[in-house]
Write a structure and sequence with these properties.
Elements: E1 15-19, H1 25-33, E2 38-42, H2 45-53, E3 59-66, E4 70-71, H3 75-82, E5 85-93, E6 97-100, E7 111-114, H4 116-121, H5 123-128, E8 132-135, H6 139-149, E9 154-158, H7 160-166, E10 169-172, E11 182-189, E12 202-210, H8 216-226, E13 231-238, E14 246-253, H9 259-270, E15 272-282
Parallel strand pairs: 1-2, 1-3, 7-8, 7-9
Antiparallel strand pairs: 3-4, 3-11, 5-11, 6-9, 6-10, 12-14, 12-15, 13-14
Length: 288
């Protein structure tokens, strides 16, 4: 079983990298979780990861799943290869707002621009007000575009932070269809930290591939049930485009040094070809 502990001493930058434009929901997550750090926008998830690996940033904030739309594409396959470690989780309530040029009234807005996911999360409001949908590359980028164009008939769906950054007014707040729309983010670091104990408990994330024997996955999971370890997430995805090589990503409650978790991981290790701990970190109380 691979549980890496690193004692590197790279120079600190006090920056946290995220994917997207300033004002993106990942930017909001950085502000909420690490208000003392400078948020560093990156073009792609890979760029955010590389910023930490290269020492350009100390941490990366990566979205992994949304309560409405499920997991974020590509993230689970990127994490094991990133060389980084999960040191925290954050749950961010995704409030969607209609942003427009200062002085614009709601009845002037004909089209709303945003990422396709956000457009889908505000169908009720947009239909009620007869507002057409226009797909943008991302949420904050749409807000920036609306600010640059300066056309009252065009608005953006984005965070209030994006409105503040690009000088837009909020015409309507919290217009999402689902009142509990939340995104879970993981904070990534070059160094693992397994010494902490969270006030609300601990989480352990890992990936594994089962051995090619009958009922291997069933037997591997048995150790968590018999030891009373709560598995909050189990997902599978293909490795290298192969239909026969499947990797599993799992989150469990507890610390690898807890006796019950230790026994469960030992049993899992017996039935796997690969088992890699991605992170041991405090449980966010907003899980509840």
């Amino acid at each position: 079983m691979k549980i890496t502990k690193t004692d590197g001493h790279a120079a600190m930058t006090n920056r946290i990298a995220f994917q997207g434009e300033p004002g993106a929901y990942s930017h909001q997550a950085c502000h909420e979780a690490r208000p003392d750090m400078e948020a560093m926008p990156c073009r792609t998830f890979e760029d955010a990861i590389e910023a930490v690996r290269s020492g350009e940033a100390d941490l990366a904030m990566l979205p992994v799943e949304n309560s409405t739309y499920g997991r974020v594409a590509d993230i689970h396959s990127l994490l094991p290869e990133s060389g980084l470690h999960i040191i925290g989780e954050s749950f961010v309530r995704v409030h969607i707002n209609l942003l427009a040029q200062p002085g614009t009234t709601l009845d002037q807005v004909e089209t709303a621009m945003s990422h396709t996911v956000l457009l889908g999360q505000c169908r009720g409001f947009l239909t009620e007000h007869g507002i057409h949908r226009r797909v943008g590359a991302d949420t904050a980028g749409s807000a920036r575009y609306v600010a640059e164009v300066g056309e009252p008939s065009l608005a953006a769906l984005a965070s209030e932070l994006a409105g503040e950054i690009y000088g837009l007014e909020v015409l309507a707040r919290h217009i999402e269809d689902h009142s509990r729309n939340t995104t879970r983010f993981l904070t990534m670091s070059r160094e693992a930290n397994h010494a902490r104990r969270g006030e609300h408990g601990m989480m352990t994330s890992f990936v594994f591939q089962v051995r090619n024997i009958p009922a291997a996955l069933y037997k591997a999971m048995g150790g968590f049930a018999t030891n009373g370890v709560n598995m909050t997430k189990l997902e599978s995805y293909m490795v290298g485009g192969s239909f026969t090589a499947t990797q599993f990503y799992a989150d469990i409650e507890g610390h690898p040094e807890d006796p019950a978790v230790m026994r469960a991981l030992d049993e899992l290790d017996y039935f796997t070809e690969k088992l890699e701990i991605l992170g041991v970190y405090p449980r966010d109380p907003r899980r509840d």
